[in-house]
């Protein structure tokens, strides 16, 4: 919970920052801009500069890593290898080199390609693939012809890997040796292939100069980076922080004052417009206090009145971020303290839904309140996070189905934070509210993409749970998020149709094995179910559901593999191109 | 996908780690990889498994001339037999053959012999415990392709068999295989350092 600071502290802070002219100047400008709803594009430029600096930093990391690797032969990806194995690796590295000389293979090892690899040692074996040149030669005794054969193994579509050439050495038993190389290659591919290692390597390679994210990189930091880091630190704490605190305070004060003013007016169109302007302005000021750079997409689908806006919840900043573009009615439990103060202030200017803790347990009451609000065209769209808020997790359990049961239009919103410049996630068990705010204000910036999605309504034959699931899917797809379960009761994911068709084939086959089915099925009697009659299979199966005791796909025995594709979607994207043709068989 | 099915239970992790000699971190990495590759799951036990198609989905493996054979050897080595499924335990077992040999901590699964076994299995298609000249020629042709004439392949095969076949019975047994590979640094060739 936020500790409400006494007014005196505020005054002192304000005074001290205003004594500092540049900060005051910036503050004034920012407020001006916020009020007018314009932006100088400074934040975008700031972000671009930061990116440039980080990339330079990443380059530094790479070169340092390279140097360090040469010195200590330490693998790039630290977590994989236990520290007590390092010695052994060094020896084996040396052995590899000697072996290389011994077998008189041409070409040196390419170490530069190793940089983009996750592990040095896999780089070695890759380059050994690249460099092992074997030629097909006849023994001296039986002829002088040297037959060279090139097997081009183009192992990668992308440009940076060189095309690798392998020839096969036939001198006696060396063939076996070469085949072992192929084995190694193959097993390596099984353990890890290009796509995944590159993706993960990209994620590792940039450091955003915040120690909180940099635990892996300490070993690669050289003096240049340290200087940069120090400069960044000073900038963040001595310049950004006071400015942001001031802005935050001003924003809060503005909110209190403006809502009080707007509250004076009687309900009507004027009040609504004033509220609109006031809310937008104060949220914009507040968002500048954490240097939030928000990109809105598809603004035509913005929520208008009589609807419920539903968004995925990722940080406490969500409400503020969304409110910089559109005005919403909020819903939640009423608190005491500073938060309660703000809640009362907001309620003066427009109607929000706050309810007591005891009421929260009464789902019907909550649901009714929602219905009332939504059916009033004068009221603003409600903003709901069905997953939960960081402030109070319990109350949202009620909303999960509740908001989807009401039957109003749902405006889905997908939000995605880019955590390169500051991680807005709050782990409430590890950090207190104060710590969290401090972290926010000393990050570089908070970047967020918001996508408005076309409105959705509940279909006739859908129940609330399915509808919720549908909305969730749409949001997850747009935001590039992993589809997680929202409701504990939603356990089963639907099996995709093509798998169903495949299973139907197998099902039909089983059917013919287990039963003398001909008279039960509605098709031509006397013919066994064929693979082409899938559509008819459906009918046949549906007509006599208990023929083989399998009432549904779910009951098929284990050896009929059902691919729950959704179950298998991992967060890491992977290339899943189905093999078009098998490995070329050796012509005989 | 519930969290419980996508992560290895701790007891399982320990067991596999001890049995295979791999560090827990390595086992977890392999598990991640296993899940990535797997497209099938058993209804009852919820266990994931790999089929040959899953292996063939790996592009690099497809491009490898011995790719299919390697897959066959993988399945044979895992001793899956009729069921044609590779569970995670089998997966780890086979891959742990490729762990570097630690002289201080010898382990049954990554001995030199175990490594050679894998290679031998790849040649010995019919599991007869011997490599015939034809089986050898098969592999050779897979590696070389159509570029070399049949006679040449034949003579290479001949020569190789002669070198290795000590008792001249026309077959190479596993012992003869091991003996012939004495000079080759199998430990280096068939080890991955990152499998610790």
UniProtKB/TrEMBL annotation, chain A:
Residues 307-418 form the Phospholipid/glycerol acyltransferase domain. Residues 578-588 have a biased composition (Low complexity). This is Phospholipid/glycerol acyltransferase domain-containing protein. Residues 78-126, 521-588 are annotated as: Disordered. GO terms for biological process: phospholipid biosynthetic process; triglyceride biosynthetic process. It comes from the Eukaryota. Belongs to the 1-acyl-sn-glycerol-3-phosphate acyltransferase family. Its main location: membrane. The chain crosses the membrane at residues 12-36, 220-239, 245-265. Pathway: Phospholipid metabolism; Lipid metabolism. Residues 99-108 have a biased composition (Basic and acidic residues). CDD domains: LPLAT_LPCAT1-like. GO terms for molecular function: glycerol-3-phosphate O-acyltransferase activity. Residues 82-98, 555-568 have a biased composition (Acidic residues). Keywords: Acyltransferase, Lipid biosynthesis, Lipid metabolism, Membrane, Phospholipid biosynthesis, Phospholipid metabolism, Transferase, Transmembrane, Transmembrane helix. GO terms for cellular component: endoplasmic reticulum; membrane. InterPro entries: LPCAT1-like, Plipid/glycerol_acylTrfase. It is found in: Membrane. Residues 521-530 have a biased composition (Polar residues).
From TrEMBL, chain B:
CDD domains: EFh. Its main location: membrane. One of its GO terms (biological process) is protein transport. The keyword Transmembrane helix does not apply. InterPro entries: Calcineurin_B_homologous (IPR051875), EF-hand-dom_pair (IPR011992), EF_Hand_1_Ca_BS (IPR018247), EF_hand_dom (IPR002048). It is found in: Cell membrane; Cytoplasm; Nucleus. One of its GO terms (cellular component) is cytoplasm. GO terms for molecular function: calcium ion binding. Keywords: Calcium, Cell membrane, Cytoplasm, Lipoprotein, Membrane, Metal-binding, Myristate, Nucleus, Phosphoprotein, Protein transport, Repeat, Transport. Pfam families: EF-hand_7. The keyword ATP-binding does not apply. It comes from the Eukaryota. Gene3D superfamilies: EF-hand (1.10.238.10). Residues 111-146, 152-187 form the EF-hand domain. Belongs to the calcineurin regulatory subunit family. CHP subfamily. This is EF-hand domain-containing protein.
């Amino acid at each position: 919970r936020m500790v409400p600071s006494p007014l005196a502290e505020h005054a002192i802070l304000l005074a001290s920052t205003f004594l500092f002219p540049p900060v005051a100047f910036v503050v004034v400008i920012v407020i001006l801009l916020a009020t007018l709803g314009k932006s100088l594009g400074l934040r975008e430029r700031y972000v671009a500069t930061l990116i440039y600096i980080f990339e330079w930093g990443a380059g530094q990391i790479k070169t340092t890593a390279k140097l360090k690797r040469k010195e200590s032969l330490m693998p790039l990806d630290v977590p994989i290898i236990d520290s007590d194995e390092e010695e052994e690796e060094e020896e084996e590295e040396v052995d590899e080199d000697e072996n290389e000389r011994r077998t008189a293979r041409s070409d040196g090892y390419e170490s530069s390609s190793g940089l983009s690899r996750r592990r040095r040692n896999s780089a070695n074996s890759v380059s050994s693939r690249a460099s092992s040149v074997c030629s097909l030669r006849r023994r001296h005794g039986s002829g002088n012809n040297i037959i060279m054969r090139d097997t081009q193994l183009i192992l990668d579509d992308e440009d940076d890997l060189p095309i690798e050439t392998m020839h096969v050495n036939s001198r006696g038993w060396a063939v076996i040796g070469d085949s072992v190389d192929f084995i190694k290659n193959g097993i390596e591919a099984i353990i890890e292939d290009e796509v995944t290692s590159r993706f993960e390597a990209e994620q590792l390679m940039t450091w955003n100069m915040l120690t909180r994210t940099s635990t892996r990189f300490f070993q690669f930091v050289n003096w240049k980076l340290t200087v940069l880091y120090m400069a960044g630190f000073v900038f963040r704490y001595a310049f950004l922080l006071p400015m942001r605190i001031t802005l935050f305070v001003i924003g809060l004060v503005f909110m209190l004052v403006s809502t009080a003013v707007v509250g004076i007016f009687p309900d009507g169109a004027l009040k609504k417009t004033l509220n609109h302007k006031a809310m937008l302005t104060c949220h914009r000021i507040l968002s500048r206090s954490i240097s939030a750079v928000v990109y809105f997409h598809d603004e035509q689908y913005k929520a208008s009145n009589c609807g419920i806006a539903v968004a995925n919840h990722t940080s406490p900043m969500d409400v503020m971020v969304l409110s910089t573009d559109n005005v919403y009615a909020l819903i939640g439990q009423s608190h005491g303290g500073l938060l309660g103060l703000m809640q009362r202030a907001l309620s003066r200017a427009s109607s929000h839904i706050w309810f007591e803790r005891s009421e929260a347990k009464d789902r019907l009451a909550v649901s009714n309140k929602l219905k009332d609000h939504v059916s009033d065209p004068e009221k603003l769209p409600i903003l709901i996070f069905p997953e939960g808020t960081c402030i109070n997790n319990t109350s949202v359990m009620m909303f999960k189905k509740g908001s989807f049961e009401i039957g109003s239009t749902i405006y889905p919103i997908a939000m995605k934070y880019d955590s390169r410049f500051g991680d807005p996630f709050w782990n409430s068990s590890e950090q207190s509210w104060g710590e969290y705010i401090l972290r926010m204000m000393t990050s570089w910036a908070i970047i967020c993409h918001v996508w408005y999605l076309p409105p959705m309504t509940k279909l006739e034959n859908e129940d609330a749970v399915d509808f919720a699931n549908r909305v969730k899917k749409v949001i997850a797809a747009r935001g590039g998020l992993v589809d997680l379960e929202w409701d504990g009761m939603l356990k089963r994911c639907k099996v995709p149709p093509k798998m169903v068709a495949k299973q139907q084939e197998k099902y039909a086959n089983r059917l013919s094995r287990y039963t003398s089915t001909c008279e039960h099925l509605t098709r031509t009697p006397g013919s066994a179910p064929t693979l082409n009659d899938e559509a008819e299979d459906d009918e046949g199966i549906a007509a006599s559901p208990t023929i083989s005791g399998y009432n549904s796909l779910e009951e098929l025995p284990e050896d009929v593999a059902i691919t729950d594709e959704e179950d298998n979607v991992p967060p890491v994207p992977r290339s899943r191109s189905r093999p078009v043709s098998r490995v070329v068989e050796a012509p005989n | 996908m519930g969290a419980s099915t996508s992560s290895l239970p701790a007891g399982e992790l320990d067991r596999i780690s001890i049995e295979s000699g791999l560090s827990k971190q390595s086992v977890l990495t392999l598990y991640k990889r296993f899940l990535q590759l797997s497209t099938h799951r058993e209804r009852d036990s919820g266990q994931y498994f790999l089929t040959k198609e899953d292996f063939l989905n790996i592009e690099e493996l497809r491009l490898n001339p011995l790719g299919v054979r390697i897959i066959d050897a993988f399945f044979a080595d895992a001793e899956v037999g009729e069921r044609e499924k590779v569970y995670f335990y089998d997966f780890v077992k086979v891959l742990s053959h490729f762990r570097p040999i630690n002289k201080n901590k010898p382990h049954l699964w990554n001995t030199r012999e175990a490594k050679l076994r894998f290679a031998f299995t790849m040649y010995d298609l019919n599991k007869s415990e011997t490599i015939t000249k034809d089986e050898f020629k098969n592999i050779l042709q897979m590696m070389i392709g159509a570029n070399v004439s049949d006679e040449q392949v034949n003579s290479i095969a001949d020569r190789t068999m002669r070198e290795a076949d000590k008792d001249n019975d026309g077959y190479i047994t596993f012992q003869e295989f091991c003996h012939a590979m004495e000079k080759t640094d199998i430990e280096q060739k068939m080890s991955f350092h990152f499998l610790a």
